[in-house]
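Input C-alpha cells:
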C-alpha cells in the first residue's frame, strides 16, 4: 500500500505541475558600451544689409545719413573680428570711401562708413583712423547696425545713381 500511496502522491504532484525533477530557468546576458564623441569646431557666418542713403540732395548744404547692417553668428565662445576694406570706389581711403556713378565717369560721391549706429568710429581694418568690430560668439545671430554719412560740400556731384562694394572679412 505504501507503493500505491506514493503513486497517488506522484500523480497528484505531476497534475499540479510539481515535480522533483524541474530545473530552474537560467538566462544569460552580456553587454558592451557605445562611445559617442564629437569635436565642435569654431565657425562663423556673416551676412550684410546694404548701406542705404536714399535720395541725397548734395546742394542742400547738409550731410546725409544712411544705415545698413551685419549679422554675425559664431559658435559660442569664439572670439571674432570683422574688418572692412577700402571698397571699389575711385580715390577711396579707409576714412573716406567713394561711391562711383553707375553711369560711369565723373567724381566719386564720398561717404564715411561707421562701425556702429552712433556714427562716431569709422569702420575699417584698424588703419587710417578706422577700427574693426569685435565680439565673442554666442551661438545666435548678433545684429550690428552700421551707419554711414555722405559729408556736406559735394555740390559738384552730378545727379545719378552711385554705388560701392566693400569687402567684409570676419576672422575668428
Amino acid at each position: 500500500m505504501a507503493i500505491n500511496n506514493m503513486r497517488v502522491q506522484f500523480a497528484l504532484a505531476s497534475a499540479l505541475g510539481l515535480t522533483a525533477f524541474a530545473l530552474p530557468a537560467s538566462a544569460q546576458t552580456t553587454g558592451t558600451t557605445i562611445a559617442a564623441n564629437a569635436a565642435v569646431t569654431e565657425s562663423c557666418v556673416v551676412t550684410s544689409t546694404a548701406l542705404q542713403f536714399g535720395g541725397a540732395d548734395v546742394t542742400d548744404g547738409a550731410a546725409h545719413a544712411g544705415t545698413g547692417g551685419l549679422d554675425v553668428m559664431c559658435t559660442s565662445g569664439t572670439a571674432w573680428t570683422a574688418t572692412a576694406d577700402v571698397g571699389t570706389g575711385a580715390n577711396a581711403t579707409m576714412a573716406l570711401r567713394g561711391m562711383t556713378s553707375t553711369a560711369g565717369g565723373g567724381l566719386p560721391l564720398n561717404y564715411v562708413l561707421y562701425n556702429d549706429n552712433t556714427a562716431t568710429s569709422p569702420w575699417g581694418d584698424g588703419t587710417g583712423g578706422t577700427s574693426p568690430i569685435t565680439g565673442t560668439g554666442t551661438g545666435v545671430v548678433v545684429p550690428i547696425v552700421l551707419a554711414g554719412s555722405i559729408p556736406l560740400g559735394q555740390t559738384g556731384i552730378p545727379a545719378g545713381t552711385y554705388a560701392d562694394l566693400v569687402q567684409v572679412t570676419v576672422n575668428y
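Residues 4-8 have pLDDT under 50 and may be disordered. The longest helix spans residues 2-15.
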